[in-house]
Amino acid sequence: MSRATLSFLLSALIAGLAQPASAATRRLAVLVGNNAGSGDRPSLRWAETDAAKLARVLVEVGEVDSEDVALRLGGSVADLEGALAQVKERLAVARRTSDARLLLYFYFSGHSDGESLELGRERYPIARLKARLAEVGADVRLTILDACRSGAAIASKGGSKAPPFEIRMADSLVSTGEVLLASSAADELALESPEVRGSYFTHFFVSGIRGAADSSGDGLITLQEAYRFAYDRTVAASSATLQPPQHPTYDFRLSGQGELVLAALTARTAGLVLPPGFERALVLDLARDQVVAEIPVGASPRVA
User: Angle at Cα 252 formed by Cα 178 and Cα 83, nearest 5°?
Assistant: First the structure.
């Protein structure tokens, strides 16, 4: 097969929300993006775009209600603390008024020195972030740090460069604990790509949630599938650059069984199925000037 890249123009294709896979689970998200770092660090181009992109996919296919999304772009430490305080209150209200199990996503894209997240000239210690997240009251916390040296947040616990893992966790969240995904190892850069208009890790993680990671073909994107896809593709793509390869890392501390489903594409009414014969496809949204997803050779041919 000859190499070919197919770019689909996508604007109105992605619309509507997936029906919840489990009525007993409520999912909330805090997403923070900041292009600026401290000192004389050069500004990132797509950190804020990446945060908005992940927020969008969580609402569209990730069963997160738009009212339960706190998106903070280019803000300060006070903005971050405020978002965490707000989600803590929302979780407390949910705990008092329903029996739903509670899942919280926290995502950061920006600069980091491995010890702190950088929001412009301000620094927010990762240790403080972990403490705040432990206090919010969610049954399960999924933290994603897409920043240089973000793996230090895991390496400090004895973690290391980590290939895909086997994680078992009930979709109904009969589980408690936390998962931390970092886009790079403790001594690595997290790379951006002009072609995908974003960071490699977030680009592939979002692509996976939209369907490219569906290795089983059942229309359900699990955390294991999404991480496996993002890990493999990030390592491969970064290895083709002039920079050292980038290795995502993870740490999980959970009790439970089953698998956590991040997206249920079987309930979608709109999607894109690729014809055979293409080695790689980029799905574009011209209205947002954004690469929505990438489907490489061997991946699921359907995206939502």
Answer: 30
Distance CA 285, CA 289 (A): 6
Full residue range of the structural domain in which residue 151 is found: 20-270
Within-domain flag for 285: no
Quick check: is 287 in a domain? Answer: no
| Cβ pair 101, 172 in contact under 8 A | yes
Evaluate whether residue 145 is within a structural domain.
yes
Strand pairing of 140-146 and 220-222? unpaired
Q: Is residue 46 part of a domain?
A: yes
The encoded tokens of residue 191 equal 């790379």
Q: Assign residue 237 the CATH number of its domain.
A: 3.40.50.1460
Tens-digit pLDDT profile for residues 214-230: 988 888 999 999 999 99
Give the pLDDT confidence of 244-273 residue by residue, as tens digits.
Answer: 999 999 998 877 666 788 998 875 545 566
What's this model's pTM, rounded to 2 decimal places? 0.82
Count of residues in the chain: 304
**N- to C-terminal Cα distance for the chain?**
26
Closest CA relative to residue 196, chosen from 107, 106, 285, 270: 285
Count of the separate structural domains present in the chain: 1
Q: Amino acid identity of 73?
A: L
More confident residue, 216 or 119: 119
CA distance 9 to 15: 15
Pairing outcome for strands 290-296 and 261-264: unpaired
